[in-house]
């Protein structure tokens, strides 16, 4: 097994990359922050994801989080110390990473053993298949933070679970546990915690045994179908609202409910 680690911060924040038996495995490790990714980590994740293509023996990419979290998404505390323009740029870079993984010619599998929230959910949805344990929780509580759903974010959710549930998840900020996530199609497979890795590797090896030409063709065909769908939101829609986002981030850092003052028009 080939293993490499990219250390990203002075704290225990790493993206671990492994290769074994035709499987490339990325593990997001930042346990002190529920595996939330900093802007730098999103950039490194893109680099490492593209690295999987350098080895022709890699047939499947698997993405997982360390411990009992997939990833809480982007590091909200980091946004408290940067400008709105810098925050917007960080979200654009995050979407670039997610889109890169979504368009990889390799089949991708997300292994979810805990919360996959916000951008973490989008990362999971960008993968071709998702496996969740009974500890999996999926949600996109952007309404608590003043984060707006850009067109690609909305499209990933709508294409998978439909418009009503997409709005429900944002309107209420609720999370879906394993059973409901599986029922609505967010999860393709479920497993017990103790069997999750074994189940995922078995699935990965099954996918890796299929015709590479067939796998690539179906990925390209499905992507073309998605690309031909009309945008659900204008491409110019920003990720952060100039009034609600600063208040949402302050409330998150101060561990209090946000007090949003603007009205919907």
| Mean pLDDT across all amino acids | 88
CATH topology: 2-enoyl-CoA Hydratase, Chain A, domain 1
Poorly predicted sequence stretches spanning 5 or more consecutive residues = none
Named at the architecture level, the CATH assignment is Alpha-Beta Complex
Looking at this structure, what is the CATH superfamily?
Answer: 2-enoyl-CoA Hydratase, Chain A, domain 1
Which range best describes the helical content: under 10%, 10-25%, 25-40%, 40-55%, 55-70% or over 70%? 40-55%
Instruction: Determine the oligomeric state from the structure.
Output: single chain
Count of the separate structural domains: 1
Q: What kind of sheet is the major sheet?
A: 7 strands, mixed
Biggest β-sheet: strands ordered side by side in the sheet: 1-2-3-4-5-7-10
Description:
- The protein is 43% helix and 18% strand.
- By secondary structure, the chain is an alpha/beta fold.
- Strands 1-2-3-4-5-7-10 form a 7-stranded mixed sheet, with helices on both faces. Strands 6-8-9 form a 3-stranded mixed sheet.
- A hairpin with a 2-residue loop joins β2 (14-20) and β3.
- α1 (39-51) packs parallel to α3 (84-102), α3 runs parallel beside α4 (119-126) and α5 crosses α6 (163-172).
- The mean pLDDT is 88.
């Amino acid at each position: 097994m080939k293993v490499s680690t990219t250390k990203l911060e002075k704290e225990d924040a790493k993206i671990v990359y492994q290769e074994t038996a035709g499987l490339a495995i990325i593990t997001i490790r930042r346990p002190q922050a529920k595996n939330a990714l900093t802007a730098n980590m999103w950039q490194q994740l893109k680099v490492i994801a593209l690295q999987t293509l350098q080895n022709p023996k890699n047939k499947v990419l698997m993405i997982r989080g360390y411990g009992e979290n997939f990833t809480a998404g982007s590091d909200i505390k980091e946004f408290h110390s940067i400008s709105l323009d810098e925050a917007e740029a960080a979200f654009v870079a995050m979407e670039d990473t997610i889109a890169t993984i979504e368009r990889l010619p390799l089949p991708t599998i997300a292994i979810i053993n805990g919360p996959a929230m916000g951008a973490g959910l989008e990362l999971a949805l960008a993968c071709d298949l998702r496996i969740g344990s009974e500890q999996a929780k999926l949600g996109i509580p952007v309404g608590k933070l003043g984060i707006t759903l850009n067109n690609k974010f909305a499209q990933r959710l709508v294409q998978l679970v439909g418009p009503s549930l997409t709005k429900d998840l944002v309107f209420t900020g609720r999370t879906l546990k394993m059973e409901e996530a599986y029922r609505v199609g967010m999860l393709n497979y479920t497993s017990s915690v103790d069997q999750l890795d074994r189940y995922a590797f078995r699935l990965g090896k099954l996918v890796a045994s299929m015709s590479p030409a067939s796998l690539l063709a179906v990925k390209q065909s499905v992507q073309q179908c998605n690309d031909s769908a009309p945008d659900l939101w204008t491409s110019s829609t920003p990720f952060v609202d100039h009034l609600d986002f600063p208040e949402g981030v302050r409330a998150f850092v101060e561990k209090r409910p946000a007090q949003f003052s603007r009205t919907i028009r």
